[in-house]
């Protein structure tokens, strides 16, 4: 059976409508987790089934699609999902952030600021920020509806009491428009400030957990903290070894058997375009000049 | 200060064929401020029963028991509690305390309950404990481990800690040696002197003669004995 | 004087079976009331109806709130009732595990109620938690330890600290000393008594242990088959019980 035998973007139209309704509801109530009838997708749970369904529901034939996994366009997960939509939706794909109209991401927000013409789709493993402290779904729903969020601070309290500072470094909980506490998916907390007042639409899909939530453009998003332990968006205290960027989130990569390491931008498109523009990092061959 | 009018009590033993036992019938008596009245009568005549009725510990079926203006027979539990805290003291024969609480606190507690500062309450507790010859090394220990005589003295110290306007004493001098008996009798005299109305049961006749102004024979009110 | 809690005609059925029926009483500030009765007598059902954990079929549970005076907690909105549950009310469970978060440190357990009412200063929260641990006789050094490493008595004391940290005015206790060693019970009773007196708390204690109510409660209600058969001063009910069932209950206790 050829790919053209599938409906556009794999899912049938009824399913896409159902997902779009959930998305619209999510946009209407920013940060609120909307249940939806998640479908079986031709990939295992944990590989982005939620994000893929949301992308399938928002993609049009005119869109240009980009997929990143931990910031990179060239990892297995990103490549398979990109190929999946190339074949089932026949959409244009790109690795260039500014050229994409829909970007599906796992665990990162691109460094380059997004625009009003773009949609950012997050893959979410566990949508419920209160889950680790309160296992009962009935109770967490009630806590959300009654705005009882003391427990969220208990988690941060535990962090400080154990580590001396808030050690949560990814999936750092946020409060949306002063109302719902939301799990921003496992993005590094370095990315948290980008969630707020973003021009692009942000959609979050959790396939296994069957939840969709959303942030419409220009939404207030505040990272939770204590007065005496304020939120800090942290990153490795280095510059990118390849492009020399000081403002981007860095991955630490082991490069040889002697334990040699390299810090480089996790956002591959950002790094590539900087190098194309002539920036060089300290690890780049002949970089003495640039450093 | 203490006034009983036509007071009667029966016990109904539901689990023993609903037997009804009349124990006190139609008692009227009154005790003025500064007066000490002894209840007398043979053992089983109902002295302790009457005393417990006056304290509200036993339920009274008929009549009035007025202490400082409150009718114990009709009063709400919280009114009885307030009365016991502020007005009506009771020195029973046995000390009943929460385990682990130091003797000092046991004695100071009635004063703390009426708002006396820790410092003043402890000062008076120390005075009473020394008067009653409780060695200072025992003050920080719980009285639950003390000998019977020591417990009895701690009980008396606690009973006299707050200066109640009305007091009930159930054999306060029983099982005390001469020296401590003397201390207790002087405490009773002091209480009378400051105007307390006291009802007591004393088997110790010499003590009774010394502190009591009147005697009331309870046998007269107990139908069971009469029958 | 306004009662702190006024219970009127509270009835709860489980199908055809009676949980509790037509229970009424007033509890005044500073009063401690015991509810005794055998298993299945309806005392826990009544406690849960009063504390908002169960909805009674009929009746009122009127609480004298700080801001708006007496309000029926049965008909008030759930957010308001839950707010009471973490501010003016406290609930001490028989099993500490039901009242604690076992995966959270002692400090976090005590601090939760503070954070739930909006405290956002880590240092202050921790100081208050440490202070409360000491008040319930738990070493301040244990503040970062999880309750799983605590003994049964310590867990129960931690539960009490966690409940009292926001200065509640009414404490519901369900068999607070059940399942503890006798010596540990005594210590807990002493602690509870001190706290109740020093903080001027009102409390309702459900238990089947008559010794517990004698030491802690000013007043006593005896329940049988869902109904209150006798109520009065604790020592009066225990020393001169009037109802056949109370007489049986009191005479059934082994004398030590």
UniProtKB/TrEMBL annotation, chain A:
Enzyme kind, highest EC tier: lyase
EC number(s) per entry: 4.7.1.1
UniProt keywords, alphabetically: 4Fe-4S, Iron, Iron-sulfur, Lyase, Metal-binding, S-adenosyl-L-methionine
Pfam families: PhnJ
UniProt GO BP: organic phosphonate catabolic process
A GO MF label: 4 iron, 4 sulfur cluster binding
InterPro entries the record matches: PhnJ
Catalytic activity annotation: alpha-D-ribose 1-methylphosphonate 5-phosphate + AH2 + S-adenosyl-L-methionine = alpha-D-ribose 1,2-cyclic phosphate 5-phosphate + methane + 5'-deoxyadenosine + L-methionine + A + H(+)
Sequence similarity: Belongs to the PhnJ family.
Role: Catalyzes the breakage of the C-P bond in alpha-D-ribose 1-methylphosphonate 5-phosphate (PRPn) forming alpha-D-ribose.
Name the UniProt record assigns to this protein: Alpha-D-ribose 1-methylphosphonate 5-phosphate C-P lyase
Organism from which the protein derives: Cognatiyoonia sediminum
Automatic annotation (TrEMBL), chain B:
GO molecular function: ATP binding; ATP hydrolysis activity
Annotated InterPro entries: AAA+_ATPase, ABC_transporter-like_ATP-bd, ABC_transporter-like_CS, CP_lyase_PhnL, P-loop_NTPase
Keyword Nucleotide-binding among record annotations: yes
Nucleotide-binding found in the keyword field: yes
Keywords of this entry: ATP-binding, Nucleotide-binding
Domain ABC transporter, residue spans: 2-226
Pfam families: ABC_tran
Family note: Belongs to the ABC transporter superfamily.
Designated name of the protein: Alpha-D-ribose 1-methylphosphonate 5-triphosphate synthase subunit PhnL
Source organism of this protein record: Cognatiyoonia sediminum
From TrEMBL, chain C:
GO MF annotations in UniProt: ATP binding; ATP hydrolysis activity
SUPFAM superfamilies associated with the record: P-loop containing nucleoside triphosphate hydrolases
One record GO biological process: organic phosphonate catabolic process
InterPro entries referenced in this protein's UniProt entry, alphabetically: AAA+_ATPase, ABC_transporter-like_ATP-bd, ABC_transporter-like_CS, P-loop_NTPase, PhnK
Keywords: ATP-binding, Nucleotide-binding
UniProt-listed SMART domains: AAA
UniProt xrefs under PANTHER family: PHOSPHONATES UTILIZATION ATP-BINDING PROTEIN PHNK-RELATED (PTHR42764:SF1)
Name this protein carries in UniProt: Putative phosphonate transport system ATP-binding protein
Provenance organism: Cognatiyoonia sediminum
Upper classification of the organism: Bacteria, Pseudomonadati, Pseudomonadota, Alphaproteobacteria, Rhodobacterales
